[in-house]
Fold this sequence. Notes:
Oligomer: single chain
Amino acid sequence: xxxxxxxxxxxxxxxxxxxxxxxxxxxxxxxxxxxxxxxxxxxxxxxxxxxxxxxxxxxxxxxxxxxxxxxxxxxxxxxxxxxxxxxxxxxxxxxxxxxxxxxxxxxxxxxxxxxxxxxxxxxxxxxxxxxxxxxxxxxxxxxxxxxxxxxxxxxxxxxxxxxxxxxxxxxxxxxxxxxxxxxxxxxxxxxxxxxxxxxxxxxxxxxxxxxxxxxxxxxxxxxxxxxxxxxxxxxxxxxxxxxxxxxxxxxxxxxxxxxxxxxxxxxxxxxxxxxxxxxxxxxxxxxxxxxxxxxxxxxxxxxxxxxxxxxxxxxxxxxxxxxxxxxxxxxxxxxxxxxxxxxxxxxxxxxxxxxxxxxxxxxxxxxxxxxxxxxxxxxxxxxxxxxxxxxxxxxxxxxxxxxxxx
Length: 406
């Protein structure tokens, strides 16, 4: 009940801050509220958002035919309301994934369709949206994201190791959206422990990222606190809505933009997981407490070093936050060429009074990367590689999906 009330409040706060909203951007906010109420984060969050937005895009383009559809085929349903079809598709996906949030979902559907008069267009739109949602749901039914977790920890027989399992290790073998495979953009290995790059990154994170830091400023510490894992992906949804409003995008354009953004973002939790569990590279807390074992004379061990942020339960390389930043900024600038000129604001998902303002999406992306060093959970090279991976995924997605139909 507490989460549901918070989600409703979140939706109301969104409604007051995004001008020129349409069905797609409204349901983008609704989906975020539903996922918050259901306490969904990380890998499943991005999968759910992709399913919602692909369903809406296919529904809109099953009426308007502006862009090539992802799963829907057949003749266009010209007599249907595109707005109702999009809302119906989003509602159906969310109901299938999170039936416990039915009241919140149905309330949002009523609100988003009440201005459209009853009649054949509305009825046809509802049926079309439900049909498209079923196709999207079936397409992702065997994507491997619900496969058993068979991760095998690296261990010495008889010797205790930490027993908390990694987060969603099965995503390393999941089926991506549009891409050919999870390893399509797998980068090369992380730097050798004896390299100058590794020593540079080790000492930067050691200096900036510890609880007992020596160089991190008070402002940097506050920024680290803002960028909890719960705020990283939603910030890009908010930025996309703000860019859409500033540029006056229409329904079909928004449907395409948010489908590409969310498919690409969902792919990062597949492509990155493939790389992470291929290389199994240690986190700074492990590296710095074992700095006398890396064979690098430029790294000094700190036996009591602790990161200022809690270390996520998956390998360090490459950075997930960086790949999300890279893919999101790149999709936005490819789909909306003048996106970099739009100032954006990121709002804390739990406390809407807390905000971060940026002159461009590049500034947003850079800050999301920097805080992973300031928080002591990543090395700089991992951020650079993550951004590059994100750029490559975005380029491929925009080139091969949701192209104009004419």
